[in-house]
Design a protein that fits this description.
56% of the residues lie in helices and 0% in strands. By secondary structure, the protein is mostly helical. The protein starts with a helix and ends in a 10-residue tail after the last helix. The chain binds protoporphyrin IX containing FE.
């Protein structure tokens, strides 16, 4: 177990070395950085259209009480988080690293060890995801990429983007469970830039709703046809 954690630490350090700071072009008209980050396909024409319509997305937003205020607070969080993404990812990757049943999904099929290249490649897209979530421009292109991210967790798309030699599928049960650690650990970072407690709370609530919304969209490939 000790050896495994040390090896994982090396992988995570590698992932950190490869991670790059990402930039954002503004909150009104975002320009996806599809060429800068390998495998990042937001806005690519070749991406399949989401099976969920914008109308359905709208009903989903209503169901999680996601409003224009949440868009505003997410965009406020963009400025707060844009120079902290690596620190946030250190915490999230650290959480995964400390749980063998989670790091398993970054493991090689051959020997079960975490794959450093895979961790590093995913980490760069994860950093961009923080900025995309905070940009809160949830139109058709965003919706299509949500479907792709769902596929990448599911056996229909996992490993393909990075040619990773890893296990085939992330067990569904961990996706909704992960919403809590992802959002709870984000809150201290939202408080790092001197905003009022009320603003921090509202940014945090907006993040919770957005992550619930996204994980719900990512569930599509896991749900039996006709049941989504
Ligand atoms: C709230 C839940 C989760 C969030 C917000 C999240 C976020 C992300 C993001 C942003 C990416 C990169 C997407 C891209 O390619 O652009 C990703 C990929 C990945 N995530 Fe998650 N994730 C969640 C749950 C999980 C869980 C529970 C695991 C299991 C440990 C996991 C393992 C992975 C793996 C292995 C990849 C790479 C998939 C591939 O082969 O492309 N994720 N995740």
């Amino acid at each position: 177990m000790t050896i495994r954690i040390v090896q994982l630490g090396v992988c995570l350090a590698v992932a950190g070395l490869y991670a790059q700071t990402t930039h954002h072009s503004g909150t009104q008209e975002r320009k996806p950085m599809s060429t800068a980050i390998p495998g990042y396909a937001y806005g690519r024409p070749a991406l399949a259209k989401s099976p969920v319509s914008l109308e359905d997305l709208d009903l989903l937003k209503k169901s999680v009480l996601f409003t224009g205020d949440d868009v505003r607070y997410l965009r406020m969080s963009h400025d707060v988080l844009k120079d902290q993404t690596e620190q946030v990812l250190d915490v999230w990757y650290g959480f995964v690293a400390s749980h063998p049943h989670l790091v398993y999904y970054f493991g090689r099929k051959s020997d079960g060890q975490p794959d450093g290249d895979y961790l590093a490649a995913v980490r760069r897209r994860f950093a961009q995801w923080i900025l995309d979530t905070a940009a809160a421009d949830y139109g058709q292109k965003w919706l299509d990429y949500q479907h792709e991210i769902g596929r990448r967790h599911h056996r229909t798309g996992k490993n393909q983007t990075d040619g990773a030699p890893s296990v085939d599928n992330i067990s569904y049960r961990y996706l909704p469970a992960f919403i809590y650690p992802i959002t709870a650990t984000l809150k201290p970072f939202l408080a790092n830039k001197g905003h009022s407690a009320d603003d921090v709370d509202k940014m945090h609530q907006a993040w919770v709703k957005s992550v619930i919304l996204q994980v719900t969209l990512w569930s599509h490939p896991y749900v039996k046809d006709g049941d989504f």
